[in-house]
Write a structure and sequence with these properties.
With 400 residues, the protein is α/β, with parallel strands linked by helices. It has two domains: 173 residues, Rossmann fold, CATH 3.40.50; 210 residues, Rossmann fold, CATH 3.40.50. 34% of the residues lie in helices and 24% in strands. Strands 12-11-8-13-16-17-18-19 form an eight-stranded mixed beta sheet, sandwiched between helices. It has a five-stranded parallel beta sheet with strand order 2-1-3-4-5, sandwiched between helices. It has a two-stranded antiparallel sheet with strand order 6-7. A hairpin with a 2-residue loop joins strand 18 and strand 19. The protein is elongated. 44% of the residues are buried. The chain binds ligand PMT. Ligand PMT binds next to helix 10, helix 12 and strand 16.
Length: 400
């Protein structure tokens, strides 16, 4: 996973000459792992071909107009909810003035009013326009509302003048967008996360496992890295990209995971058990492939160690967060695990449906402590992970 993996960037392109650089900007964002959708402002297609942007982003480009047809597809509210960040590049003096006013006069400005996602603008205009008192006041207003101002650069301009107002280079914009997701909630803290399934071998080619994809645990690892933590990710077998900036420890069985966790657990500040660890393993694992000679077969199983409970019962345990995957009475069972395993927090996860839980893109959680319960509603696992890390760091800091 790269610095923008699982991040959804809604790129608004307004009508300025620097728009010709936006196919490159889309490339730079996708190279960092982002998924990019594009809204063209009115007349932006005079400066960049929608087809080029469609080709590099892999998505149909949204036009400025809000028609019955466009709204029947992914309409302005869907786009506003889809975005992890709205980036306007180039941002003309005109579009920034309209943002200040809260205008909702075309798709891009309407999405900006409707979104809860952070907004970043990369201004691009003539140096005199940039230094105009109205532009300066608009920038100050946007900044005071939390809009991130990326640039501008200074130098020779398309109009032949020299001065401030050039759009930043695409690579610089992409890097700054990635850095906006960084925070300092867990700076200097060491976090261990277990993720994915375990594989309990029956013979060299068969085993007992489950449908955990690793998505939730990997998203938490990525969010913890963004929050400044040093992350050790102990992962069962998965088929998705691993976070690039985590220390990865690959394991197969529950016993492997147990010993990998225990080997460095005393160096950790926080432990989060997201893995779907097999509760039992076959007593025997055959050296050779088992032949189908009999009509029936009985497998005798033995209980695996409970990794989370073993971590939480250490003399000086790290701050412990468990997950509880349940199909019914989710909160009640999760509370039982919180108390029984002596955890600080537990994330109650409804599983068994097609929309949340094992293998899904989205998830929903009730985060339970001894005296509180917070609902984190259904959303993309990476967005949910950022919320969870924020709640975990708050609880951790209150305790320490
Ligand atoms: O990987 P994904 O496809 O994204 O799916 C995510 C998920 C559904 C697997 C995840 O959100 C989740 O709910 N993980 C917990 C799965 C689970 O095994 O729950 P449990 O209720 O059986 O276990 C309770 C807790 O004890 C968990 O933190 C588990 O990691 C831990 N445990 C369980 C058994 C064991 N032997 N050792 C453990 O550490």
């Amino acid at each position: 996973m790269k610095s923008l993996t699982n991040k959804r960037v809604l790129l608004g392109v307004s009508a300025g000459i620097a728009a010709y650089k936006t196919p490159d900007l889309v490339r730079k964002l996708t190279e960092l792992g982002a998924e990019v959708q594009i809204i063209l402002s009115k007349n932006a297609d005079q400066f960049v071909a929608p087809l080029s942007l469609q080709a590099v982003s892999g998505h149909a480009v949204h036009n400025y107009a809000m028609t019955a047809e466009s709204e029947s597809g992914m309409g302005h509210i869907d786009l506003a909810r889809w975005a992890d960040i709205v980036l306007i590049a180039p941002a003309t003096a005109n579009v920034m003035a309209r943002l200040c006013q809260g205008n909702a006069d075309e798709l891009l400005t309407t999405v900006c009013v409707a979104t809860e996602a952070p907004i970043a603008v990369a201004p691009a205009m003539n140096q005199q326009m940039w230094q105009n008192a109205a532009s300066e006041a608009n920038i100050a207003t946007l900044e005071s509302r939390g809009v991130h101002i990326l640039g501008p650069d200074a130098g020779e301009q398309a109009c032949g003048e020299v001065g401030p107002g050039r759009m930043l280079q695409p690579a610089d914009i992409a890097a700054r967008v990635a850095s906006l997701f960084q925070n300092t909630q867990l700076t200097g803290k060491r976090i261990m996360i277990t993720a994915g399934p375990t594989w309990e071998a029956l013979d060299p080619v068969r085993g007992i496992t489950n449908h955990s994809s690793g998505k939730m645990g990997y998203a938490l690892a990525e969010a913890a890295i963004e929050a400044g933590a040093e992350v050790t990710l102990v992962s069962g077998p998965t088929y998705i990209a691993k976070p690039e900036r985590a220390n990865i420890v690959d394991v197969v069985s529950a016993l492997d995971m147990h010993s990998a966790v225990m080997s460095t657990i005393d160096q950790q500040d926080i432990f989060i058990g997201v893995a779907a660890v097999a509760d039992y393993r076959p007593v025997d694992s055959a050296d050779q492939k088992i032949k189908k000679n009999a009509d029936q077969m009985t497998i005798t199983m033995v209980k695996n160690p409970d990794i989370l409970a073993d971590v939480a019962s250490r003399d000086t345990p790290p701050f412990c967060v468990g997950f509880a995957a349940e199909t019914n009475d989710v909160v009640e069972y999760a509370r039982g695990k919180l108390e029984h395993k002596k955890l600080d927090l537990i994330a109650a996860n409804h599983v068994g449906g097609s929309e949340t839980g094992f293998g899904t893109t989205d998830n929903a959680i009730t985060l339970i402590s001894n005296d509180n319960a917070i609902e984190l509603p259904r959303q993309h696992k990476s967005a949910l992970a950022r919320q969870l890390i924020s709640e975990i760091s708050k609880a951790f800091n209150e305790q320490s």
